[in-house]
């Protein structure tokens, strides 16, 4: 049976060239290392060393076993790190940044899954829109971020994204207001976050108008209240409408418009197991989340850009 410490002795001899240097590196006496090498030779039935002047050198068999030994030691090291990470995943803390409509619709499922499967793992939640969330992720202030984008772009250098779902956009208007986004020039608009405002401008451009902004708010509850009061129309994602729906508005889907919702982490290997647990919980929650399709009010067909 090959002993791990015997392999370490052979690997250190291969790396440093002398028994004395290997012994010093390992913190053993030269005689102890020599005994370990002799025992390894007996265990394998191979001649690993040959005399070279006043010292020794590895035979071809010794060089091959030293290379394999390094691979085995590397694997043991990775296994140890993963085991430590696993223990921390069972009792530790992981930080998740999320935008408001995700907090209201997706995050409860994530917390439920983590709480049931890993009761010792605490999820610390940070409210943040995607730009701030991704910046916090890069700076190491959070471990993962729920983000969204309206174009299929890359998460950015040093980050990796896992697609969770496509969130359909809806035209939200007063019951007496517009029922088609192509009529957007006839009204003013209540806009949301910076990315949402950019998407509204893009939708307006595609339909031949420049949106006139009446009010801006990151709060989708406030946006709907303003629309219900007749201040203007809005574009809202399905996640926001599934979390809260004002009775005084009508909604219609923009069948070709959606945003990509993703969970983003740092591109590091090996990734902490607690982060893997969180990412998998996000994926499971996204699969389970039934984004209720808001009832279309006011007649007519779905809005198509």
From TrEMBL:
GO function terms (MF aspect): DNA binding; DNA-binding transcription factor activity
The name this protein goes by in its record: LysR substrate binding domain protein
One Pfam family hit: LysR_substrate
Every HTH lysR-type domain range: 2-59
UniProt keyword list: DNA-binding, Transcription, Transcription regulation
One Gene Ontology term, aspect cellular component: cytosol
Source organism, top-level taxon: Bacteria
Matching SUPFAM superfamilies: Periplasmic binding protein-like II (SSF53850), Winged helix' DNA-binding domain (SSF46785)
Organism: Actinomyces johnsonii F0510
Family classification: Belongs to the LysR transcriptional regulatory family.
């Amino acid at each position: 049976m090959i002993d791990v410490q015997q392999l370490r002795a052979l690997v250190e001899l291969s790396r440093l060239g002398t028994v004395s240097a290997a012994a010093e590196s390992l913190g053993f006496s030269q005689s102890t290392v020599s005994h370990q090498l002799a025992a390894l030779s007996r265990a394998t039935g191979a001649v690993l060393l040959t005399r070279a002047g006043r010292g020794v050198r590895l035979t071809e068999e010794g060089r091959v076993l030293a290379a394999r030994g390094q691979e085995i030691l590397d694997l043991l090291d990775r296994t140890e790190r993963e085991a430590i990470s696993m223990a921390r995943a069972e009792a530790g803390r992981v930080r998740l940044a999320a935008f408001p409509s995700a907090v209201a619709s997706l995050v409860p499922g994530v917390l439920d899954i983590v709480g049931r499967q890993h009761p010792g793992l605490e999820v610390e939640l940070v409210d943040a829109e995607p730009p701030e969330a991704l910046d916090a992720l890069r700076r190491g202030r959070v471990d993962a971020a729920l983000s969204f984008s309206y174009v299929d772009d890359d998460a950015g250098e040093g980050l990796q994204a896992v697609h969770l779902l496509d969130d359909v956009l809806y035209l939200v208007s007063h019951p007496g207001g517009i029922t088609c986004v192509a009529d957007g020039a006839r009204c003013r608009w209540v806009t949301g976050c910076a990315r949402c405002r950019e998407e509204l401008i893009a939708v307006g451009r595609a339909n031949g108008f420049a949106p006139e902004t009446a009010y801006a708010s990151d709060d989708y509850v406030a946006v709907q209240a303003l629309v219900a009061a007749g201040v203007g129309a809005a574009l809202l994602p399905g996640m926001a409408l599934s979390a809260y729906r004002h009775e005084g508005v009508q909604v219609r889907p923009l069948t070709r418009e959606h945003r990509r919702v993703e969970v983003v982490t740092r591109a590091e290997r090996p990734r902490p197991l607690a982060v893997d647990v969180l990412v998998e919980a996000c994926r499971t929650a996204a699969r389970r989340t039934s984004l209720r399709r808001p009832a279309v009010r006011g007649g007519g067909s779905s809005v198509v850009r």
